[in-house]
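BUG: 3D viewer hangs when loading the predicted structure for this chain

Environment: internal workstation, default settings.
Expected: structure renders.
Actual: progress bar stalls at 90%.

Input used:
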Amino acid sequence: MTQTTEYQATAAASGGAATEKFVEKAKAGPDTSPERVSALASEVLSAVHDVIRRHHVTYEEYDALKAWLIQVGADGEWPLFLDVFVESVVEEVASEHREGSKGTIEGPYYVPGAPALAADATLPMRAEEAGTPLLFHGRVRDVAGNPVAGATLEVWHADDAGFYSQFAPGLPEWNLRGTVTADADGTFRIRTIRPAPYQIPTDGSTGALIRSAGWHAWRPAHLHLKVSAAGCQPITTQLYFEGDEHVANDIASAVKPELVLRPDVAPNGEEARYDFVLDPA
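Structure tokens produced before the viewer hung:
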């Protein structure tokens, strides 16, 4: 019997998983007023109408768009498409008031409930996990400079081949995912591996758009984090690596200069520090 591995991951399978998890997350959505819905929907439709008029869109192009939109849903790729091409602007608006650390997009591969780990932790991984060992450490404090004792850091990232557990076959359920609790001084030390840059799935409808437009599909290597603590605003962010060729042209437009790590060479791989500053709730 042939064992399915992460290298057999498909856009449809990962898209289906992302859609299922997003639907669960969105069940308790906001109670938006009809006036707000009307204002937003009207402006979106007006913008679409303006594009059609300015570019003299033909019926053939319109039919191609309808077919593509239908296929995005059939592939389960709406979470992927929206997170890659829209979320960065939503995040920009949502966090423009912050004084503390910069946030960025969550992306489609977050899973709540990762294993609880102490402040000095090693993320769950396979016995011979490929990749350069990485010690990621730092401190969580508030905007006044005080340490935030017991802050929670949810961490997840792709492996050395660019795949995420629970979204590619053959990977352990919680591979490279963990929920770390900082110590009384707000400090944390997390041992993991440096993730790889990766292409977003391209064998589905999102990939069809990318090819038709002549775009690339690459995201730079990154660590995902959600940092939270009582009395503070939670922050969702990604941390990137200096020297990665896709930092300057991330397809998701999620990179900010403040989020780029500059790792040092360590005896057993690399070491990188990043301190988080949380705004008051």
